[in-house]
Amino acid sequence: MIELENITKIYRMGKMRVNALMGITINIQPGEMVALIGASGSGKSTLMNILGFLDKPTVGKYTLEGVDASRLNDNKLAVLRNKKIGFVFQSFNLLPRTSAVSNVELPLIYGGGRQRRQRALAALERVGLTERSNHKPTELSGGEQQRVAIARALVNNPTLILADEPTGNLDSATTAEIIAIFGQLNREGITVVLVTHEIDIANQTQRIIRLLDGKIASDEKVT
User: Fold this and answer.
1) CA angle 20, 71, 114 (to 5 degrees)
2) I need a surface site. Which of 16, 141, 211, 216 has the fewest CB within 10 A?
3) If you ran DSSP here, which 8-state letter would residue 201 be given?
4) Count of domains in the chain?
5) Residue 163 burial (C-beta neighbours within 10 Å; 0-12, 13-18, 19+)
6) What pLDDT was estimated at residue 149?
């Protein structure tokens, strides 16, 4: 599913050089649910951005489902990202004056998808939010807003979901509900990679990759 080989990311700010990632090599199999953990500045968000084609490595090779991303231009990367990857963020990133179902439709508009409304409603049904489809984000709880964001990530039927601190703004009960949704999606065959700083959440995945100072400090199966 995912093959990272010697991924290095260097940011240059004037004369300063920041080594965000240094020689990351990881293989993630189809259907795995993996947590990336680490302190602030460990490189986990940089790694997530590279996995989602939101950033490019300075050095190294990233292959997604057999496709070498280094050989693709920005337009082809955007097409691959839209077809294969669903994103879920801590801040939800919903349009505040737009209904839940219209928010879920957005990736289909950008990608030229057909039957947008039916597909958006089907995605909302998968996260148990059909009855709230016409509500705006301001009329929804934090957990419901995150469910809308997950439905939006699902609407193009991705094979990979990337979730960056998806429960960071939620209480413990709602966090459990959201992680349960990710677990169900994973059991349906979707590969899930989530960034978290909470070990309790990481322990609900199948594998924990811990980053420290831009390197892999440990890579362990959850027992």
Assistant:
1) 100
2) 16
3) H
4) 1
5) buried
6) 94
Domain interval for residue 119: 30-56+72-221
CATH number at residue 87: 3.40.50.300
Determine how β-strand 33-37 pairs with β-strand 191-195: parallel
SS (H, E, C) 68-119: EHHHCCHHHHHHHHHHHEEEEECCCCCCCCCCHHHHHHHHHHHHCCCCHHHH
pTM: 0.91
pLDDT of residue 208: 97
Please, how many CA atoms are within 13 Å of residue 145, restricted to the half-sphere of its CB? Answer: 21
Count Cα atoms within 13 angstroms, Cβ side, for 220. 11
3-state helix, strand, coil in the chain (%, to 5): 40, 30, 35
- What are the pLDDT digits (tens) for 131-154? 999 999 999 999 999 999 999 999
